[in-house]
Amino acid sequence: MLQRKKGFEYVSVGILWVLILTLTPNSVDVNWPVEFWYRQLFLALLLTVGYILHSQYLLPKLLDRNKFLIYGLSVIGVITAILLLVHFFEDQIELPRRMHELFRPEKPYNPENRRGPFDFTSFFLILFDLSLGVIIFLVRKQQNEQEIRKELEQLQVRTELSYLKAQINPHFFFNTLNNIYALTSIDVEASRTAILKLSAMMRYVIYDGDSQHATVSDEINFIENYIELMKLRLSKKVTLKFTKPSGTYDQPIAPMLLLPFVENAFKHGISSTVASEVIITIQLTGNVLDLYVENPIFPKSGEQHEEHGIGIANTRRRLELLYPSRYNFEIDDKDNTFKVSLQIEL
Questions:
Q1: Which end of the chain is more exposed for a tag (fewer CB within 10 A), N or C?
Q2: What distance lies between CA 233 and its chain's CA centroid?
């Protein structure tokens, strides 16, 4: 649908320039030579191509990413290229000679008096062409942002319900409390630590889960607390390898964005009878966050694996809305092994 709208926009711009450059000269009582109309159509073609190049590449890839210097140089390059091409085309069809014979037939034509490639009228039309692209781009961007905000608000409600019911649900909460209760008779200090971790998790869900952003450190701590509590339920047949970056990181990230992948690994990657290995790796390089999760697949009776489930589906949609063109998400589900690789440019 988006490509169809852009195609319609580009065709409309091309028709607009053909009409402007052909109808305007007709308002003057002049018998224009055919070479002049060739030049007008060629200029209309160049203006349309320039509009497409500007709208399709320069605006979204340079201006929208705050690369102002490169964008400015690119715009200058587009203007210069159009002026030079028009100048070259005029020479090829001998338009300067035809125009001289039309307006100054009493004087012989001298090619040395030919003006340079800069033409104020063409320059003004190019500026108008590029400015039109900027206006449409900004209006469309504002509309998209409004739509995204509305969709985010709706998605946040569904996501919160999904997380509270599926990830941090009463079943997990009460199982953890039972494990902690059993632990109190064996290791009081460990049970106290577990209670603190559970308290920190619930605090993160209740308070940070309602906000649009949390810090990377808070998100990693939440994942770590979740893993530590899940360890209370793991048998000796399960090998868990968890790697996280050291230090404190204040980069903003959407809260509870990583949890569905980690929760999915524990939900489907452990067995009480078969040896298994769960690998969870979180890395931060500059502003790029990498998450890698690998686990075997032990589907529960009557359940399907969560590759296309609510948790991961909602997270994929959140990534599309919050980090458009700034994330890479891959799932490899082969040989009874589930692998998730996620990179986010924060």
A1: N
A2: 38
Residue bearing tokens 């390898």: 241
CB 86 within 8 A of CB 46: yes
Cα 145 to Cα 269: distance, rounded to the nearest angstrom: 38
Q: Of the candidates 284, 215, 218, which has an alpha carbon nearest to the alpha carbon of residue 250? A: 215
pLDDT in tens, 190-211: 788 888 888 887 777 776 655 6
Q: Is residue 159 part of a domain?
A: no
- If asked whether residues 196 and 133 sit together in one domain, one would say no
**80 assigned to some structural domain:** yes
CB 310 within 8 A of CB 162: yes
The pTM of the full predicted model, rounded to 2 decimals, is 0.52
- Residues with Cβ < 8 Å from 333, sequence gap 6 or more? 297, 305, 307, 339
Q: Are 331 and 307 in contact (CB under 8 A)?
A: yes
How far from the centroid of its chain's Cα atoms is residue 165's Cα? 29
Percent over 90 (pLDDT), the chain: 24
Pairing of strands 288-296, 214-215: unpaired
Round the average pLDDT of the chain to a whole number and report it: 82
CA 18 – CA 47 distance, rounded (Å): 10
**For residue 323, is it within any domain?**
yes
- Tell which residue, 130, 36, 25, has the closest CA to residue 89: 36
- With CA atoms as reference, report the closest residue to 312 among 290, 334, 287, 338: 338
Q: DSSP state, 105?
A: T
